[in-house]
């Protein structure tokens, strides 16, 4: 089996919604791999493709994602796909070296003045999402997907938290893929985040399940044209070396926690890094401790 044949089989049989992104990866690699069989795909044969991507200014993160698609195809050819005789198309799956060109864009945490300048340029619905993100450290897709049925009341503290579920779940408008850490993530609400939630609660229309909808539908991304225009109009760096997206809000929250001398373990919990059994982290006493730490950034 040639690699193009395997790629075509993969595309035709794939059921994932992001298959378009995989197709783009395969198209970019086609000139380099079109004459190779599956057995000829390995680190050395992929090097011309990798060199060309680097020359074109493609980030190593993107190349690693492309390589993951190629590796997935080889894995299927080895583990699942079979010839008419019942043989595997590939005896084993080769390992690919991870690419690291130290070209990851540097974060751009905001100071208070920069935050004010940027947020004033955002449309109202996006501004509320940004206020929430910069006061919770929640990743962009968590904010976009945040649902009212993820809210957990803590009556002892007259507040609530949100538990972002680790497991994937199919909803009527799409599939929540689960968390990056594969653990439930605890989101505590300092006074600013809580005030944003209360505004959204008052403005909720009908039974819309999302905390931050736009026209009663889930927003697919905060990093849209409105965000990008606001970033440029605020006069912030607009180059490949500097991160320009909403993930900077998480970096901003992290820097402010560190500046407030919040202990490392507490910062990890507030920033939703892998922390173990979540049930130990939303007891009233623990939530009170996290709230006190998060209030230091308001």
Give an account of the 3D structure.
The protein has 298 residues and is mainly alpha-helical. It folds into two domains: 3-79; 112-297, hpI Integrase, Chain A (Orthogonal Bundle), CATH 1.10.443. Helices cover 46% and strands 8% of the residues. The protein contains twelve helices and seven strands. It has helices spanning 3-13, 19-33, 43-55, 60-79, 112-121, 124-134, 140-145, 191-202, 225-233, 247-259, 264-270, 284-294; strands spanning 151-154, 159-164, 169-171, 174-176, 185-187, 213-214, 217-218. The strands form three sheets. Strands 1-2-5 form a three-stranded antiparallel β-sheet, with no helix packed on it. The chain has a two-stranded antiparallel ribbon with strand order 3-4. A two-stranded antiparallel ribbon has the order 6-7.
Provide a quick synopsis of the model:
With 298 residues, the chain is mainly alpha-helical. The protein has helices spanning 3-13, 19-33, 43-55, 60-79, 112-121, 124-134, 140-145, 191-202, 225-233, 247-259, 264-270, 284-294; strands at residues 151-154, 159-164, 169-171, 174-176, 185-187, 213-214, 217-218.
